[in-house]
Every structure is written in structure tokens, then in C-alpha cells.
User: Which sequence fits this backbone?
């Protein structure tokens, strides 16, 4: 982790960058903005740069970054690479640039795809350099290894795959010992057949080159082992040697962890005995070998992974045991036949001789010759006559003994170890940098962490990697929470040696008393106690709302018990920049789970819909469950004389509910690993990343449905025709009056394919014909509310394709660019499935409660019966509807609906003059329907449709209708009397209305039998609900509960799929038990946009190195699974859409973007609808970094706020303006400037939101002011996904504040910044206009623009503009003018608490309601508050009595100055 600090230190200024030699060379030879004046290619320049700037600077990261950013690879190195003429320096320069692109996480292979011709020879040159020993330095060899690993991990790129697959094919077995090869080919006959075929096909002229390639991996492993064995046990060691060894193990692990590379390589690896020789190396024994040792453990795990290399099928524990037994028995047989000294070993049972200790006891006494003979017999080492040819083999006793023992010892069960692992992290893990790396990971070194790439070996491997990463990421977040809460408590050492808490924290309380109250006996076959419970007592003498938060802790909420023994005396200041543990004296951390709060009688208070009874006083006791595995470990240590941890706790800490689900998710993953995961056959290989990526597309599924009811998808026949371009449309009726929706569509090509059992002749082009059959929805009753709700959205052809795909079985991926109606498509799919397959149940999953509520509100508006909807989780409170769709809310709805329906039954009974209490229960109502209602209806039918077929007069229907009195409250007349068919349809509609009453009552009958609310809610979930919505987090938390209930579903629809973690996307597939060993899942619809930002991973090591931010949606798109790309956006003006539409295949504009009034009108007060405004240094300062990665830019902050104030002054509503930035530091600074300048000013106030681009994903506003902050390096805006989100948040106006010279040269951003820089880079204003305006968007404002040349000038202009406004409103604001603060006098803020590097990881709320936003600040102790107020007073004081022209408005009201400065204090610095 030492590498992580290489990037820190003073960053170069812009002047330094411009004067730099690299910049000058780039301008002369390859920079895109100087392309007209470029000099000819000169290979000496490449040599010179490599020797001086790369190798000469010891591969300094800053020099490499400058080269890569200048487009050295794209514009100079690769276009001028020649297989014959290019030197070692040229090749190495390309390698270093590619590695840097991967480190920066920007696309690396694009230049090679454009000019692929020379890539094979370049790759061969790289391989040759990898095997060089003298000419190539270790640092260069390490860079080559990293490049090679990137190649192996980019198998989805055709160009790369073509080269690397030759290194790992069956032909590499040429490097095996002859005996071992024969043994392996004998085991798998088909491989012998392929082996002979390879031999036969080899071109004699190419044999040498082919052999060289085939033995490459073996030779590089031999080279590694030789290098490793040069390391001594003591003495100096070259760091480069250690880095090379670490990187080599990383490469081998990655080869082992992918099935295509592992299949044949695993045998070669085993034959080289690399794992054994690494295990015996001296590096393991040295402190420098810590990471190497961890990597070796990972390699051991993967080299013996439970998978068949032949078939790729997972192996069960039973299979692994059988393989182990066969190895031992073959050794015993050999020993019995050939080695009499091992007779006792040969005759022993397997279980008694397969441990390391017993194997050593039997084999250690043997001579070296004897050990070698055994190894030779087992084909582990070559025969003596081959010794010279294969001289790299070791034959010493230590090696041979370890080889035999490690090969035959019993393998520890991974699953058993996992089941015994405590799920809560302890202090030993939380602050161990080797296990949980720091946030500041530069991406240079390697780590002993699993990676989430394209493919996984088995579902067990998939779950295990995700389990480990999720556990570590959670631990990292827990570390942040503990450090924050405990340091706020300010634990100090009192004079008597006890702990004195000098501060207080919202999320932590000192413990008054702690006692373990129950330790239950272990279950049979287990060693840990089955349950451990304890009572924790705290004194909640805090503010009422905080006390309420503590009392509202739910069952299963996780808390942490902490022991601190501070060494600092009272009054010592704590700082987050110093190591945490020594400051607070933290000793122990243990996790626990809340069972409940105890009442006055010491009983746990049960949770339910009713509020808990109030308790007197401030003392509260919580009953908690402790981790049984951890308790057993701690008690074992206590029995050996160590301290009893459970007698020392003095702090309990809770966490925010949204971030506190880690234990439940880990338990869910662990549970899945212990059960047989059954995913549908059509999905299994795609999830693991193998097979045909298009196999699960609906057109390839064997059960594709030819006829579908599209319900209200189409508005009319013209809409239907436009939705299927390239199809012939046939209609079943020629009557235009009948060609109205809903339509039932039959796809003739699907019918033909189904008749041929899916076998379609490639040459035969099937004509695409759709037969359209309009159908009338039967009348549901005579009342207006019986009319079905209808869709009003004119879906585009692509949206219709997405809806069609979602209706069909299989996997549907919908890529939805910003503003393309993803939610509308999702809702229509759900509605259509509901109507086409009424017996099926659909699970709706999203990333956030906000998205789920938006989806649910739209579902409610469609023709879906309310009783079939259910919303799980705690987000339903935010639904903008008076109805409650939670479990208990739905139970109450059903009970209320039951009473309403029974009232209707009673009214029906009275209308028919039937006696008796038929409306008492659902059961009595059922009898009433059968014997009274149905009988009358049949009698009515016999009279209006006589069996003789005689035509009856129309009036008979009205005369004979038995329910006239019941429908007295329906619109009159009930029967029109104009046609028999019309009146008959009305009569049948009336009966359907009545019949539905009784159908519903029959469904609700269970609610009469089930008495408790819990049972009723379970029944609702399992039987009644047809559309069940939840967040992915809720699915992970409640999986066990749902499975135990017998929850079933047939379809899953996921919104925001690209924002959901891989594992949280996978878990919803497994919320039900399989039926007869098969999953009942029929369709999986995923809607998302992988071109926008991925899930937030706060720790950069997990995000960058482990690729944990990759969603399952993104991964399967990378694999090549077919997608439906929505292509019409209706959010932004066409001009703003152009800034990001280049990122998508074919993104256009919906018609309303051209003709709706808001799009036709210009942005008042501005010359342009979007502009890039250049912001130069202010007082010689651009970006600043008061603490690591806490980037700020005061000039931009002031400029943005001045622009916001200008917009407010000309009439823009505050709620239509959002201010976004790319860094947490800038967000805090802008909020601070707003608080001081205009927050309490009634003329201006606050914008709708001030937040980061990452946090604003999924939201939009009419006008966006965007600050890009950086002036020295582009930073993480190079991630094009962040750029797309930033550019696509605005509907009508986007104003970007940035250092133009920096961003316009960034290769990845060129398509957007090329358009931005076409317009002037100074803000063009039209201050004579006011909001709203009548000026059209394509018309220029009258007069000439007011040009704001820089920030101070803009500030001065806004001040003067404001004074004019105030003068005009003098009667209202007579005493508004005051002494103002100069722009830029505000001090850049240094965070008082830790602020994450990831812009989506800041834990503050984004609410602009100050009361919500500054709760954390109210938690700061008074002394800190006073100190900060003093600083603000100093910062904001100006020259008394005089008005300075270059000053900005602060307040309009003449309020008390002290109160004013307290308002300025509200800085969000958590």
C-alpha cells in the first residue's frame, strides 16, 4: 500500500505543465490541437522519452500520466508502430501507456482496434521481452507482466482473444513431462483425439514458432521460480524483485480463475510445482513477503478449486472427497507394490493417513532416492534419464516431501470454514490495512483481493468472491462509522483512571451496564452455542428526536459494542488526520443484533403496527444477540487466561439503517452457498459468463409465444403500424370502426418457427407478418369507474420492441439513455404481463426507494387491480398517494374492502327482497350468490336466449333483468333499448360487476379464517399479490423469510439495473425454492444504462482493483448479450442532448422536444442554452486540496453562486435550478458560500439541490450549473460515465464552469467538449430579459450581450444588478443595503471529519432544508461551534461604513449581525 502515496505531494501548476518538456514535445509531434503543425515521426523521440521520462524517472506515475493524457499512445506510438522497425523502447512505451489506461480505468484497446494489423507481431515482441533475463530490467519485466494480465482479462475483445488463446490451448501440454501428459490424455480420451489432430495440422514451417508460443507460460513460470529462489532468508532485498513476484502470482491467479484459461493451464501449473516451490521460498518467511503469502493462499485455493477442468461442471464436496480418496489409494497401492518400507502406510485406512502430520510421519524417514522414486512413479518428476533436459526440476528431500504431502493431505472444507466465520468484523480486521486497504488506492500495486471480471468458474466461486468483497467493503464503512462516532464522544482518561466522555454523538452512547443473560447449548454436531443473548443499558438524556431514534431500533438492526481505554487526558483535541486507535485507546469491537427494547417488566417489547408504550425516565435496556462463533472464540481465549472481552464494553454504536444491512446480506450469500443454487437453465451459463451470449434472447427460446395481447400499448392502428417497421401488417376485420385498441397480435414467423421446432433454414428468409385482431374488453359494469384505465403514451418502435421482448420468456436487457422513458416501458411490460398471464406473479426490484416509488405510482395509474399490488420495505412511506401499499396497509385495505363488498351484498339482498343474514361473512355471501344470484341469472338467460334460438324483442332484456333495483344508482337509462347486442352486453357487464364482488369475497375468505395481522400479511404476500415490489436491499435482507414463507414468482423486472451491485442483482433470482429441482422463473427483464454511473463503492481498492463497481447488467452487456437500446429522448433540448448522445448507438429526440412551448422558448437572461465558462485562477489559486482528495475551487464556487443569484434576480424559480459538482469538497464549499451569500435572503434563497453529479444520478432539473473543480488534472471526470450523467441532468439550460485548457485536451471527453468549445468561453448574459420570456430558442436577444469576463467581474455585475432591484423595491426593503463581503474572501474549508474520496460516498443528506441538512453540525460540541463562528466573523468582516463595488449580496433584511454570522456557520462538514 506504500504506492498509494506516490500520487500525493504538490501537483504541478498549469504554468509548470505548459512549460514541461512532455507538453512541448506533444505540441510539436502529436497533440490534437496542434495537428496542422506536427513534425514527421522520429523514432529517436520515442527512445528519448522512454529513456528520460519513463525509465529515467523510475516509471514515475506523474510523468506517465502526462504522457498518456497527451494522447501519446493514440496519436504517436501506435500509428507509427512497425513490426520490423520498432525498437524495445517503442514496444515498452506502448505497454506502459496501456497499463496507465487500465490504472486510470479508461478504454485502452480502442487505438489497437482501429489499426489491428501490427498487433500480432507487437504481442509476440511483448512475449519475447517477458522471457528476456539480462536486457530487460525487473521494473520493465513487471510492467510486461501487468500488460499480459490485462490481455488475459480482456478476452471479450476479439483482437486480444485471438492472441492469448494460443498460449492456453491444449497444445500447451507439449511442455508437460511425457509420463504426465500420457496419464492426462488417458484420463480424457477426447483430448487424445484433439492432441493427435493438432500434431497432424501443424505447419512444418511454423513448428518452431508454435512450440515457442506453446511453451511460453511454462518457461515464464520456470523463470519466476528461479528468480524467487534467489531471495535469501536475511539481508537486503530488491523491492522490484518482490513486486515482480507479487505481480506474477496475480497473473497466475487470474489465469486459474477463468475457465477458458484454466482448462489446460492448471495441469501445466501443477506439473511445474509452482505452488509448492513458492510455499518453500524464503520470501514467505520475510516481512516483505506478507502480500506474497496472501496471494499464494489465493493461488492454492484456485489451483485446487472444486471444478472439473474437463467439463467445467462444479464438483460437490462428495466429488472432491472421492478424488482425494483415489489419490491416496493409488499412492497406497504403489507403496504396497513397490516400496516395502511403506507397508504400514499401505495397509492403513485412508482417514488415518491423510492428514499432514501422519503423512510426514510415514514419509519423513525415507531417503531422498526413495522419495524421488515415489514421485517419479506418480509422474510428479521426470525420470532420471530426462534430468539433464529438464534441469529446472528440484529433487532435494525438502521439496519432494512437501510435494508428496501437499498433494495427498486432506483438503480443508472451504464451506465449513465459511460457516464458522463470525460475520461481524472485529478490531483485528477493521484496522488491518492488508485486509481492508485504505481508501487512497492509486492502482499501481496489486492486492490479495478477488476480482469481479467477466467470467466465474462456478456459482460457488461467484458467490464466494462477492461474499469476500462485500464483507470487506462493509468493514471499511464500519471503520469510518466507528472512527466518526467514537471521536465525537471524545473519550478521555479521568484522573482516577476511568473513562470520561467529553463529547457526545448522535450514533453512539456510553454503556451504563452490560450483562450476558443467556448462553444456549450447542446444536447437535456443532461446537458454538446455539444462541447468546445480552442486555445493554444506556442513559438517553439527549434531544427528543435522538432519543426517539434510539427507541426506534428495529429487530435485527446491527449495533457495535466497543471498548475504549483512552490514554489522552481531558481536553485533548482529536483529529481525523492522525491514526485513530492510539488517540482514543480502542481495544475491542464486537457486533451484535437487536432483539428489542425491554419494558418495565424486563420483557422484550414486540414490534407491530401499533406504537410502543412510553417508558418513564431516560434509562433504556436493549436485549441483543451476540455472534455465537465469535463468543465461542472469545471464551476459549478467556479460558486460556486472556481478558474476558464481554466485561469491558463501554460504548454502543448504531448505524444508519440504509447502510446497516451488511450482516443480513452476508448471511444470505452464505446461505446460498450452503444450498443448491438453482437458476434457470437458460440463464446459468450467462451468469457465469460462458456459452452463447444470445442464447436467452426471446427469439432463441424454445417456448416463444406467437400470440400476445398488447392490451393498451397502442393508441390506434397508425401507432401500431409505425411500431413495427419492416413487418407486413394483416388485419382480421375490414371495418375501420372496429380497428381500435386493444389489439391481439399474432407473429406468423414465430408460429412457423415453433412448428419446425425452432429449426429454421439459414437461407430461407421468413417473411415477418403480424396478424392484428382487435378485441373488445368485456364490460365490467354500468358505472363510470368500471371503465378500464388506459395508457396514453405513444411508444416508439424501439420501446414497443422492448415491451414485446419483456412479454416473451427469456432474458431481456433494455438500455435506456437519459430521458428515454425507461420507467414507462417497465410499467407497460408489468401491465401487459399482468393481463396476458393472470396466474403469474411478477417481482419488481429497483436500486432505490425513490425509483421504486416512481415505478409504483405509474403502475397504480394503469389498469391493474389494486388488491394485487404489494410494496415491501420501508420506502412506501414516500409514495405520493394516500393509499398504503405496505403489507399491513394492504391487509387493512383487504379488510376494509371486505366490509364494503359485504355492504354491497346486503344492498343486493335487499334489492331482491331475500331474507336472512347473507352478508355476515364471505362464506354466507358465497351461498347467497350460488342459490339466489346465479339462479336468477340463469333464469334470465333462458328467457332472453331461449334454447329454441327464437329471436326475442329488445325490451325483453330490460323487462326480465332481475337486478334493476340494485343498479338504481347507475347512470340512467340502464338499457338503451336500441339493439339487442348492446343491451345484452350491458346486462352481462352488470352481472360481471356482481360476480366480481363475490369472486373478491371468495379470495378474501382466508382473512376471516386467519386472525393475526402477521398471518394475514403472509397470506397476502404468498397468495393474493400478483405484483410485488421491493428494493434489491430488501430482497437481500429478507431472502430467508421469503423462502420460508413459500414465496413464489414467475417474472422479475429490475429497474436501475446498472446501479445495483452484482450480488444484489443475483439474490432476487433466488427468493423462492426450486420446484422439482428446477427454477420456475420464466422471464427476467433488466432495464438500466451502463453508460451512466455504476454502483457506489467507497473504497477505491475494491472499486478499481477488484472491479466491484461492475454491475451484473454491465457485465452481461460486455459479454455481448443482445440489448434493446431505447432511441428517443424526451427530457432535454436537442442541443443539450447532442452533448451526450454520441455515447449511444442511435439516440434521437422525441417529437415533443421540438414543439412543446418550454422547449421552443429561450432561456431568459442568457445568450445560449448551454455554455462552457472558462474560470481562471483567482488570486493565483485554482484548485486547492485542504485534505487528501477534498478538492475545492473557490473561483468556480463564487462564479456558480453569482450565476445562481443572477438567475434568481431575473425571476427564475429556485426549485428549477440545481448546482452540481464533481467533488465532495466543492459541494461543501458551494453550500458554505450560499449560506453566507444568499441562503436567508428572501429575494434569492437556496437552489433546489447542491450536490455531486454522482448523487444526482436518476434526477433532473430545468437548469443545471455545473462546477468541474479541477485545474491541474482532469481527475475522475475522465470516466465518461460521469460526464454522461453530468451533461444529461439539464432539461433546458446547462452552464459548465471549468478550466477549458485542461478539459478540451482530454481524449475521452473530446466529443462533448468539442461542442462546448464551439461557443464563447465567457458567460454571455442578456440582463434586460426576465423570466419567463417570449423570445424563441433560435432567436438572439436584442442588443449586444453583457459578457462576464471573469469571476470578480460577474460578482461585481450581480452586486450592481441586485442594488438596482433593491432600489426598485425600496418601499419594501428600505434598509436592505449593508456592508458586503468581497468575492473570494471566503476561506476554503477544511473538513472537520473524514470525507470520502468517492463523490457518491459522502454521507450527508442532499436535502436543502437546512434543519435536515445540519443535524450533524448541531452535534458538534459547543467549543468547536464558538471557534468556527469566530473564524467566520474574521473571514466575513469588511471595511466598515463603505460600499465596495466588487461585492456580492449577503442579506436583504437588516438583521442582527451576530445571528447573521451564525447562519453563515451552517457548513455541512460531516
Assistant:
Amino acid at each position: 500500500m506504500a504506492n498509494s502515496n506516490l500520487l500525493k505531494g504538490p501537483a504541478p501548476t498549469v504554468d509548470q505543465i505548459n512549460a514541461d518538456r512532455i507538453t512541448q514535445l506533444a505540441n510539436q509531434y502529436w497533440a490534437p490541437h496542434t495537428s496542422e503543425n506536427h513534425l514527421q515521426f522520429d523514432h529517436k523521440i520515442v527512445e528519448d522519452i522512454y529513456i528520460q521520462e519513463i525509465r529515467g524517472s523510475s516509471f514515475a506515475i506523474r510523468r506517465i500520466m502526462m504522457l498518456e493524457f497527451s494522447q501519446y499512445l493514440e496519436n504517436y506510438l501506435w500509428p507509427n508502430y512497425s513490426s520490423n522497425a520498432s525498437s524495445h523502447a517503442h514496444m515498452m512505451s506502448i505497454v506502459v501507456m496501456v497499463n496507465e489506461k487500465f490504472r486510470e480505468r479508461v478504454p485502452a484497446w480502442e487505438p489497437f482496434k482501429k489499426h489491428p494489423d501490427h498487433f500480432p507481431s507487437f504481442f509476440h515482441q511483448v512475449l519475447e521481452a517477458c522471457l528476456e533475463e539480462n536486457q530487460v530490467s525487473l521494473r520493465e519485466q513487471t510492467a510486461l507482466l501487468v500488460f499480459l494480465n490485462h490481455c488475459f482479462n480482456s478476452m471479450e475483445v476479439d483482437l486480444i482473444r485471438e492472441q492469448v488463446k494460443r498460449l492456453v490451448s491444449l497444445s500447451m501440454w507439449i511442455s508437460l513431462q511425457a509420463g504426465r501428459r500420457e496419464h492426462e490424455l488417458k484420463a480424457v480420451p477426447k483430448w487424445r483425439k484433439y492432441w493427435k489432430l493438432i500434431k497432424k495440422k501443424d505447419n512444418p514451417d511454423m513448428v518452431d514458432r508454435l512450440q515457442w508460443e506453446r511453451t511460453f507460460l511454462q518457461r515464464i513460470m520456470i523463470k519466476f521460480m528461479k528468480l524467487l529462489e534467489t531471495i535469501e532468508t536475511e539481508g537486503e532485498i530488491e523491492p522490484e524483485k518482490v513486486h515482480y513476484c507479487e505481480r506474477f502470482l496475480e497473473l497466475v491467479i487470474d489465469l486459474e480463475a477463468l475457465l477458458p484459461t484454466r482448462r489446460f493451464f492448471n495441469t501445466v501449473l501443477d506439473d511445474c510445482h509452482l505452488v509448492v516451490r513458492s510455499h518453500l521460498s524464503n520470501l514467505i518467511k520475510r516481512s516483505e513477503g506478507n502480500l506474497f503469502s496472501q496471494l499464494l493462499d489465493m493461488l492454492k485455493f484456485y489451483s485446487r478449486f472444486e471444478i472439473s477442468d474437463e467439463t467445467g461442471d462444479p464438483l460437490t464436496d462428495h466429488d472432491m472427497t472421492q478424488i482425494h480418496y483415489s489419490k491416496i489409494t493409488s499412492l497406497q497401492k504403489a507403496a504396497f507394490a513397490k516400496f516395502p518400507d511403506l507397508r504400514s502406510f499401505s495397509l492403513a485406512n485412508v482417514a488415518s493417513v491423510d492428514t499432514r502430520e501422519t503423512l510426514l510421519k510415514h514419509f519423513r524417514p525415507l531417503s531422498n532416492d526413495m522419495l524421488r522414486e515415489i514421485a517419479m512413479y506418480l509422474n510428479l518428476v521426470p525420470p532420471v534419464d530426462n534430468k539433464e533436459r529438464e534441469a529446472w526440476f528440484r529433487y532435494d528431500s525438502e521439496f519432494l516431501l512437501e510435494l508428496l504431502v501437499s498433494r495427498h493431505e486432506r483438503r480443508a472444507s472451504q464451506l465449513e470454514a465459511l460457516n464458522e466465520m463470525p460475520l461481524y468484523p472485529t478490531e483485528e480486521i477493521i484496522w488491518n490495512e492488508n485486509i481492508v486497504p485504505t481508501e487512497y488506492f492509486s492502482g499501481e500495486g496489486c492486492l490479495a483481493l478477488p476480482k469481479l471480471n467477466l467470467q466465474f468458474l462456478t456459482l460457488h466461486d461467484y458467490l464466494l468472491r462477492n461474499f469476500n468483497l462485500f464483507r470487506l467493503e462493509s468493514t471499511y464503512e464500519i471503520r469510518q462509522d466507528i472512527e466518526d462516532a467514537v471521536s465525537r464522544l471524545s473519550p478521555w482518561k479521568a484522573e482516577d483512571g476511568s473513562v470520561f466522555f467529553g463529547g457526545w454523538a448522535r450514533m453512539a452512547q456510553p454503556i451504563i451496564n452490560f450483562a450476558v443473560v443467556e448462553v444456549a447449548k450447542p446444536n447437535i454436531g456443532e461446537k458454538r452455542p446455539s444462541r447468546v443473548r445480552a442486555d445493554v443499558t444506556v442513559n438517553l438524556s439527549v434531544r427528543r428526536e435522538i432519543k426517539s431514534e434510539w427507541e426506534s431500533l428495529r429487530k435485527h438492526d446491527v449495533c457495535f459494542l466497543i471498548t475504549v481505554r483512552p490514554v489522552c487526558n481531558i481536553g485533548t483535541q482529536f483529529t481525523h488526520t492522525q491514526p485513530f486507535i492510539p488517540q482514543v485507546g480502542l481495544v475491542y469491537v464486537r457486533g451484535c443484533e437487536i432483539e428489542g427494547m425491554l419494558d418495565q417488566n424486563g420483557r422484550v417489547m414486540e414490534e407491530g403496527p401499533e406504537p410502543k408504550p412510553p417508558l418513564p425516565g431516560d434509562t433504556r435496556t436493549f436485549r441483543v444477540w451476540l455472534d455465537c462463533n465469535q463468543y465461542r472464540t472469545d471464551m476459549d481465549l478467556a479460558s486460556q487466561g486472556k481478558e474476558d472481552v464481554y466485561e469491558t464494553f463501554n460504548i454502543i454504536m448504531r448505524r444508519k439503517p440504509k447502510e446497516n444491512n451488511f450482516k443480513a446480506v452476508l448471511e444470505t450469500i452464505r446461505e446460498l452457498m450452503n444450498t443448491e443454487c438453482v437458476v434457470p437453465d437458460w440463464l446459468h451459463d450467462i451468469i457465469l459468463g460462458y456459452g452463447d451470449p444470445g442464447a436467452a434472447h426471446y427469439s432463441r427460446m424454445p417456448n416463444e409465444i406467437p400470440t400476445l395481447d398488447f392490451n393498451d400499448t397502442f393508441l390506434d392502428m397508425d401507432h401500431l403500424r409505425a411500431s413495427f417497421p419492416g413487418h407486413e401488417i394483416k388485419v382480421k376485420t375490414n371495418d375501420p370502426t372496429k380497428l381500435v385498441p386493444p389489439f391481439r397480435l399474432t407473429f406468423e414467423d414465430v408460429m412457423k418457427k415453433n412448428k419446425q421446432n425452432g429449426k429454421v433454414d439459414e437461407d430461407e428468409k421468413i417473411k415477418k407478418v403480424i396478424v392484428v385482431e382487435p378485441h373488445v374488453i368485456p364490460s365490467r359494469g354500468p358505472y363510470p369507474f368500471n371503465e378500464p384505465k388506459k395508457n396514453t403514451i405513444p411508444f416508439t418502435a424501439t420501446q414497443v420492441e422492448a415491451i414485446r421482448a419483456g412479454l416473451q420468456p427469456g432474458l431481456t436487457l433494455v438500455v435506456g439513455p437519459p430521458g428515454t422513458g425507461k420507467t414507462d416501458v417497465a410499467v407497460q411490460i408489468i401491465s401487459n404481463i399482468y393481463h396476458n398471464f393472470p396466474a403469474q406473479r411478477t417481482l419488481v426490484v429497483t436500486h432505490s426507494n425513490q425509483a421504486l416509488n416512481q415505478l409504483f405510482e405509474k403502475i397504480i395509474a394503469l389498469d391493474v387491480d389494486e388488491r394485487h399490488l404489494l410494496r415491501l420495505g420501508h420506502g412506501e412511506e414516500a409514495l405520493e398517494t394516500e393509499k398504503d401499499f405496505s403489507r399491513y396497509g394492504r391487509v387493512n385495505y383487504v379488510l376494509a374492502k371486505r366490509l364494503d363488498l359485504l355492504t354491497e351484498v346486503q344492498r343486493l339482498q335487499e334489492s331482491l327482497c331475500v331474507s336472512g343474514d347473507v352478508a355476515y361473512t364471505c362464506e354466507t355471501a358465497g351461498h347467497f350468490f350460488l342459490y339466489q344470484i346465479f339462479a336468477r341469472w340463469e333464469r334470465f338467460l333462458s328467457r332472453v336466449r331461449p334454447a329454441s334460438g327464437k329471436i326475442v324483442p329488445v325490451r325483453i332484456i330490460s323487462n326480465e333483468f332481475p337486478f334493476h333495483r340494485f343498479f338504481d344508482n347507475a347512470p340512467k337509462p340502464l338499457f338503451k333499448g336500441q339493439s339487442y347486442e348492446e343491451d345484452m352486453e350491458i346486462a352481462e357487464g352488470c352481472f360481471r360487476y356482481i360476480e366480481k364482488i363475490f369472486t373478491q369475497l371468495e379470495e378474501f375468505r382466508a382473512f376471516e379464517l386467519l386472525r393475526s395481522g402477521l398471518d394475514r400479511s403472509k397470506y397476502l404476500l404468498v397468495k393474493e399479490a400478483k405484483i410485488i415490489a421491493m428494493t434489491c436491499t430488501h430482497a437481500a435482507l429478507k431472502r430467508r423469510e421469503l423462502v420460508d414463507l413459500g414465496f413464489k414468482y414467475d417474472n422479475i423486472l429490475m429497474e436501475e439495473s446498472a446501479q445495483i451491485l452484482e450480488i444484489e442483482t443475483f439474490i432476487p433470482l433466488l427468493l423462492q425454492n426450486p420446484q422439482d429441482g428446477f427454477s420456475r422463473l420464466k422471464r427476467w427483464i433488466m432495464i438500466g444504462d451502463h453508460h451512466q454511473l455504476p454502483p457506489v463503492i467507497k473504497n477505491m481498492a475494491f472499486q478499481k482493483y477488484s472491479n466491484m463497481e461492475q454491475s451484473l447488467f454491465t457485465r452481461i452487456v460486455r459479454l455481448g448479450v443482445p440489448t434493446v437500446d431505447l432511441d428517443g429522448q424526451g427530457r432535454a433540448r436537442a442541443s443539450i442532448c447532442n452533448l451526450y448522445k454520441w455515447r449511444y448507438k442511435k439516440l434521437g429526440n422525441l417529437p415533443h422536444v421540438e414543439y412543446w412551448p418550454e422547449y421552443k422558448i429561450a432561456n431568459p437572461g442568457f445568450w445560449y442554452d448551454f455554455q462552457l465558462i472558462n474560470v481562471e485562477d483567482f488570486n493565483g489559486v485554482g484548485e486547492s486540496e485542504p485534505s487528501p482528495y477534498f478538492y475545492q475551487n473557490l473561483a468556480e464556487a463564487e462564479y456558480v453562486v453569482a450565476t445562481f443569484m443572477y438567475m434568481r434576480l431575473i425571476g427564475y424559480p429556485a426549485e428549477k435550478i440545481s448546482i452540481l459538482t464533481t467533488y465532495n469538497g466543492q459541494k461543501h464549499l458551494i453550500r458554505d458560500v450560499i449560506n453566507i451569500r444568499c441562503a436567508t435572503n428572501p429575494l434569492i434563497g437556496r437552489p433546489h439541490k447542491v450536490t455531486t453529479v454522482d448523487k444526482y444520478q436518476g434526477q433532473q432539473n430545468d437548469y443545471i450549473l455545473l462546477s468541474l473543480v479541477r485545474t491541474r488534472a482532469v481527475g475522475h471526470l475522465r470516466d465518461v460515465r460521469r460526464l454522461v450523467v453530468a451533461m444529461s441532468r439539464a432539461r433546458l439550460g446547462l452552464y459548465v464552469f471549468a478550466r477549458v485548457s485542461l478539459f478540451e485536451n482530454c481524449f475521452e471527453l473530446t466529443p462533448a467538449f468539442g461542442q462546448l468549445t464551439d461557443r464563447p468561453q465567457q458567460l454571455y448574459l442578456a440582463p434586460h430579459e426576465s423570466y419567463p420570456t417570449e423570445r424563441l430558442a433560435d432567436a438572439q436577444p436584442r442588443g449586444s450581450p453583457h459578457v462576464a469576463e471573469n469571476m470578480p467581474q460577474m460578482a461585481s455585475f450581480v452586486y450592481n444588478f441586485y442594488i438596482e432591484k433593491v432600489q426598485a423595491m425600496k418601499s419594501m426593503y428600505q434598509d436592505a443595503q449593508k456592508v458586503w463581503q468581497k468575492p473570494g474572501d471566503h476561506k476554503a474549508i477544511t473538513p472537520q471529519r473524514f470525507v470520502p474520496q468517492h463523490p457518491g460516498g459522502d454521507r450527508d443528506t442532499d436535502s436543502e432544508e437546512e434543519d435536515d441538512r445540519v443535524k450533524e453540525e448541531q452535534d458538534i460540541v459547543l467549543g468547536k461551534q464558538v471557534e468556527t463562528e469566530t473564524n467566520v466573523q474574521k473571514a466575513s468582516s469588511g471595511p466598515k461604513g463603505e460600499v465596495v463595488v466588487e461585492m456580492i449580496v449577503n442579506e436583504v433584511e437588516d438583521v442582527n449581525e451576530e445571528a447573521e454570522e451564525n447562519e453563515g456557520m451552517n457548513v455541512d462538514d460531516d
Remarks:
- The chain has a mean pLDDT of 87.
- The chain is about 45% helix and 10% strand.
- Residues 697 and 811 are 6 Å apart (CA to CA).
- The first strand starts at residue 491 and ends at 493.
